[in-house]
């Protein structure tokens, strides 16, 4: 699970793992947890998103079946940076077979960009060589998180059965 710092990655990870909101601090390095969902075991790596850490992301790509990319839809000033980082990730050879789930996070904040607006800004309709999905979410209360995992579980189980 990747995204810029303060996008909500750690909050989402522990919402999945513990079913509750936890107090988080900026992730330096990574958090890793195993999450059981719909008879699938996901190993979720939540990797810090600060600018100095992003060059290290590539060291975690081996064996990746899915990429969850979290974007803070209320931080409109950093959407271009989030887009640029996503474009860099999508060029990575080790991620070429990974399905892409984008969590359009912080939908509970008035004025946050919607999932459809984010899809348009990221120009995802041009992305024809990869399976992708954008899900509006609120990591704090869990809204949308499991709908995204439903989509991901279906895609990952299809990929593994092929």
UniProtKB/TrEMBL annotation:
Q: Which InterPro entries match?
A: P-loop_NTPase, Small_GTP-bd, Small_GTPase_ARF, Small_GTPase_ARF/SAR
Instruction: Indicate which residues the UniProt annotation says bind GTP.
Output: 3-10, 49, 105-108
Task: Specify which residues bind Mg(2+) according to the UniProt entry for this protein.
Answer: 10, 27
Gene Ontology terms, MF aspect: GTP binding; GTPase activity; metal ion binding
Q: Which PROSITE patterns match?
A: ARF
Which GO terms are recorded in the biological process aspect for this UniProt protein? establishment of cell polarity; establishment of localization in cell; vesicle-mediated transport
CDD domains the UniProt entry points to? Arf_Arl
**Family statement drawn from the similarity comment of this UniProt entry:** Belongs to the small GTPase superfamily. Arf family.
* Name recorded for this polypeptide: ADP-ribosylation factor 2-like
Q: Which organism was this protein described from?
A: Dermatophagoides pteronyssinus
Write the gene name.
LOC113796149
